[in-house]
Design goal:
The protein has about 290 residues and is mainly alpha-helical. The chain has helices at about 40-55, 55-80, 80-100, 100-110, 120-125, 130-155, 165-190, 195-200, 205-220, 220-245, 250-275. The radius of gyration is 23 Å and the shape is globular. The chain starts with about 40 loop residues before the first helix and ends in a 14-residue tail after the last helix.
C-alpha cells in the first residue's frame, strides 16, 4: 500500500553524489603535454639507442615484416598486376603500426632496466590481444575502403603501360596520393599513441584511440614533423618500386629497407608516447617478470 510523502520528506531514490576524486573513476581521455615542433627528432635519437641495445630482437621483427611483405607481393604480382601491387604498398602504411607492437615492448623493457626478450614481447602481445584485435578490425575496414578507392582511381585515371606517358603517371599518382593521404591521416591520428598505451597500461582500445587523436590534434606542428620523418623513411622504397615494377624488385627492396626502418620507427613511437601522454591514472602493466 503506497503512502503519500510529506513535502518535507526527502525522496528515498535521490541520486548519491559522487566525488570528483573517486579513484575508481578513470578519465575518458589521458591528458597530454604540448610538444615542441622539432621534438620528434629527439625521439629518433632515443630509438637508435634502443636499436643498438637490442639489435637482434629489433631485426627479428623487421625480418618478419620483410618475409610477410614478400609473400603478399608475390600474391599481388601472381594474381593481379603492378597497380594492385602499388595499392598494396600504399595500404601497407595503414597496417604497419600494428606490426610494430613488439618494438614498443622492447623499448618498454629497456626503460624498466630489463634485458630485452622476445618471450616478453609475445607475452605482451597475448595480454593485449583483445584490444589489438579491435584496433586491427578498424585498420582492416580502413584498408578495404582504401583498396576500393585505389581501384576506382585506376579505373577513372587509367595508365597505358605499353606507351607510358609521364603526364598520365603524374595524374594517377597525384590523385591516388591525395586520396591515400586522407586514409593515412586517419590511421596516423588513431595509432600515433594508442598502441604504446595499450602495451604500457591496463586500458581499452577506445580510450587509447581517443587519447591518441586528442594528442595529435593538440600538437599538429610536431605531429606534422613526425609524419614527415616517417614518410622520408619509406620514400626511397617507393622510388625503387617505380624503377623495378616489371619484376616487383622495387617492392622487395622497400620491404628490405623497412626491415630496418620499421623497428626504428616503432622504438621512436614508444618514446613519443612516453614524452606526450600522461597515462598515470591507469594501472601500469606489470606482467613483465624480470
Amino acid at each position: 500500500m503506497m503512502t503519500e510523502a510529506s513535502p518535507g520528506d526527502a525522496p528515498t531514490d535521490a541520486p548519491v553524489a559522487t566525488t570528483a576524486d573517486d579513484k575508481n573513476v578513470l578519465p575518458f581521455v589521458a591528458p597530454c603535454r604540448t610538444l615542441g615542433t622539432w621534438e620528434p627528432i629527439g625521439w629518433l635519437a632515443h630509438a637508435w639507442a634502443d636499436f643498438k641495445a637490442a639489435p637482434r630482437q629489433s631485426l627479428t621483427y623487421g625480418a618478419v615484416v620483410v618475409l610477410l611483405s614478400w609473400a603478399l607481393a608475390y600474391i599481388a604480382i601472381r594474381f593481379g598486376g603492378y597497380f594492385e601491387l602499388l595499392a598494396l604498398v600504399s595500404g601497407f602504411i595503414l597496417v604497419a603500426p600494428l606490426l610494430a607492437v613488439g618494438t614498443y615492448s622492447i623499448s618498454d623493457q629497456i626503460e624498466r632496466g630489463l634485458k630485452p626478450s622476445l618471450r616478453r614481447c609475445f607475452i605482451e602481445e597475448r595480454r593485449a590481444f583483445g584490444n589489438l584485435m579491435v584496433f586491427a578490425l578498424m585498420l582492416m575496414v580502413v584498408f578495404l575502403v582504401w583498396w576500393r578507392a585505389a581501384s576506382a582511381v585506376h579505373i577513372f585515371f587509367p595508365v597505358d603501360m605499353t606507351t607510358p606517358d609521364w603526364t598520365d603517371y603524374l595524374q594517377f599518382l597525384g590523385i591516388g596520393s591525395l586520396i591515400g593521404s586522407i586514409f593515412a591521416t586517419i590511421v596516423f591520428s588513431a595509432a600515433a599513441f594508442s598502441l604504446p598505451m595499450l602495451v604500457d597500461r591496463e586500458t581499452d582500445a577506445v580510450t587509447a584511440v581517443v587519447t591518441s587523436i586528442n594528442a595529435v590534434l593538440r600538437n599538429k606542428p610536431a605531429m606534422a614533423v613526425w609524419a614527415a620523418l616517417i614518410v622520408i623513411a619509406v620514400a626511397p622504397g617507393f622510388a625503387l618500386l617505380l624503377l623495378g615494377r616489371e619484376r616487383g624488385a622495387g617492392f622487395a627492396l622497400v620491404m628490405a629497407l623497412l626491415g630496418i626502418t620499421l623497428p626504428l620507427i616503432g622504438h621512436a613511437t614508444w618514446h613519443a608516447y612516453r614524452a606526450t601522454i600522461d597515462a598515470s591514472a591507469w594501472p601500469r602493466n606489470e606482467h613483465l617478470d624480470p
